[in-house]
Specification:
Oligomer: single chain
Distance between the termini: 42 Å
Strand content: 5-15%
Largest sheet: 3 strands, antiparallel
Structural class: alpha+beta
Shape: elongated
Radius of gyration: 16 Å
């Protein structure tokens, strides 16, 4: 295993260990393990900020599947470095990825993580509204 001096830089949901990529049980089917709860908490923390949630929504809903940072920044009354910081946190949580193309950076959604979050929060089939 590589020496990681900053564990926050590890993309969550991307594990080399067996089973690390699988969503596992939902909240309503079995209790989360300590590691899984810690990992998911970091992703939910990334989504817990209104700016990051808006950025993720803007990226995910963009026609063509990707958006230039130059199109994201004007939507906020924040500095470019602040927007970049929020985007970095979304990347560290494994929610988005990016690529530099010349001067600009383009972002896109990583659906594996949003699918994982959805599977954790989805009630099992056949579960009634009162279960």
């Amino acid at each position: 295993m590589s020496n990681q001096s900053n564990p926050e830089l590890v993309l969550l949901g991307r594990s080399d260990e067996a089973g690390g990529c699988c969503p596992g049980p939902g909240l309503l089917t079995a209790p989360l393990g300590e590691d899984q709860a810690g990992e998911l908490a970091k992703v939910f923390k990334a989504l817990g900020d209104p700016v990051r949630l808006r950025l993720l929504s803007m990226i995910a809903s963009r026609a063509g599947g990707e958006v230039c940072v130059c199109d994201l920044t004007p939507a906020f009354d924040l500095s470019q470095p602040t927007i970049s910081h929020h985007l970095k946190l979304l990347r560290q949580a494994g929610l988005i990825d990016c690529e530099r193309r010349g001067t600009w950076v383009y972002y896109w959604l990583l659906p594996e993580m949003t699918d994982r979050l959805a599977s954790v929060l989805t009630r099992p089939a056949g579960a009634g509204a009162d279960s």
